[in-house]
Amino acid sequence: MAIFGDMIRERSGLGPGDAEWLHLLVGDWQMIADLSFADMVLWFPTPEDDGFVAIAHVRPSTSHTMFHADFVGEQIQPELEPLVELAWKSQNIERSQETKIWNADMAMRVEAIPMVRNGVTLAVITTHMDLSSSRMPSRLELTYRQCAFDILKMGTLGLWPDFASPTGSRRGAPRVGDGLLRLDVDGIVQYASPNGVSAFRRLGDGESLEGRSLAELTTRLLKDRRMVDESLPLVVTGRMPWRTEIESRGVSLSLRAIPLRDSTERFGALVLCRDVSELRRREQELVTKDATIREIHHRVKNNLQTVAALLRMQSRRMHSEEGKLGLEQAMRRVATIALVHETLSQGLAQNVDFDELIDRQFRLSAEVASPSQRVRTEREGAFGELPSDFATPLALVINELVTNAVEHGLQDREGTVWLMANRFKTAAGDDGLTVKIADDGVGLPEGTIAEGLGLQIVRTLVTSELGGTIDWSPREGGGTVVEMQMTLISRN
């Protein structure tokens, strides 16, 4: 699609909305290729206007392809250029005057269809249909090809593609092979493909669809009409190019309407239908699993908060200052883990917005560690979203290092603690993270750093859980800087 987008951007003669219209065309023309049982190529003028270049190609899923090699970006073949040039100038559908023999084994019929908007030809589509088969086409094939012709004819009038067509998620969108119904102007079914008939039979309709009003039979099949989508009447009558979904007897049917128009009025419609029951059931299972996972995180958070409360109560009963301090530190560590689970319980993804989480924890860690002194906190950079298996150990590490900076670096004095984060790309192309925690305190002690339980926890978590490195160094201007580097590869 890069060639397509580049050519569209470089074309100077396009009017407002023309580029979007061409993008909409290519986004929806698989349907036409399937209906016509033909390859389709979109030709666009070269920047020098001395010919045409292929900017998009679609192959049918209802038939074999005529072109196994991709020629997008190539100049038009000399034998095809006159037909495309004629369609461009006449703004009418042009057919090759004779059967084209492209190789010894294959004959094809070529049609050139100009895509016209606001009276200006924007591009030309060529359809390439295999003529080597000697069998008579079935009614299904004849109907499909007529439908393709009607839609392409609308393209020459600027009526297709329609900006009102659905452009959202295509998950569950009906395709030609899933089922097709052709309606007349009054919404009566003129033709229903075998798959279309099967789809409505699963809804509970056991009669023939042809000759019946699609709106009436759909209404009869619906059990709970209070849940009907308000767009349903316009879709089943073929009046608007919308999508809707109906459900009955545990079966979900996705419907899409394509109104058929000429220059003066609507003369019919196509309705594509697809049984999406299994797809919706799986989506519901995922929603249920997501809700269960969030509930588990919520309960874990509640349990950890209960443990922290019990540790707080126990610390108040301790007579030993050393024992009381140990319980308070354990309480802070449990509360930090609970904060991560609280964040996970509020979203669907298994990633954590670490900036939002750490903003609260960073200030809280400094305040709890310095109840009798004034400590400022400043944060720079962004962590971004981190995998949940990184979030918990990293939050614990930051909590321990901030507490250590306040209790030892800034002991009995005012000061500032900085937290800095920087995302980067490693040589291997992975996401990396550098985290620095600095203070303007007394600095590093002479000799080896005395490692208490907190720093032992930090080293263990950084090297084993985060797979990173950690270094202590003096800060310029006084104080200490702790720097960690890690690669963000999930270990789940």
Automatic annotation (TrEMBL):
E.C. designation(s): 2.7.13.3
Residue ranges that the Swiss-Prot or TrEMBL entry lists as coiled coil: none
PROSITE patterns: HIS_KIN
Record flagged with keyword Heme: no
A molecular function (GO) term: protein histidine kinase activity
Domain Histidine kinase: 295-490
Pfam annotation, one family: GAF_PdtaS
Name by which UniProt lists this protein: histidine kinase
UniProt lineage: Bacteria, Bacillati, Actinomycetota, Actinomycetes, Micrococcales
